[in-house]
Amino acid sequence: MKSYLALAALAAVSMAAPAPAPAPAPIPAPNPQVDSVGEWYVKREPQVDSVGEWYVKRNPQVDSVGKWYVKREPQVDSVGEWYVKRNPQVDSVGKWYVKREPQVDSVGEWYVKREPQVDSVGKW
Asked: Using CB atoms within 10 A of its CB, is residue 63 exposed (0-12), middle (13-18) or buried (19+)?
């Protein structure tokens, strides 16, 4: 009798419906602030990233080689890079006057609106 009850209990347990699988995590809605690979905010505030990169306000589009359009604020980043809108004077190491536009040329370089002068060797 004991073995019959044990066998009946075992059969009842094995015939019970399996526990329902947990529901899959919901797919997050598209966030217009993050790009398609979870990289930078599409529109970043004018602060520097963790490796001292540029201050950017990125537009939600990229140039022809997948780089970002940026519009930098008129201040220099933490590693002494360029002002995007420089005042009509040269920085402490004689760098260029630039007014960079928020678009990129065909190889990902910057368009610049330079003041009507060049450096001593005629570079950009």
From this structure: middle
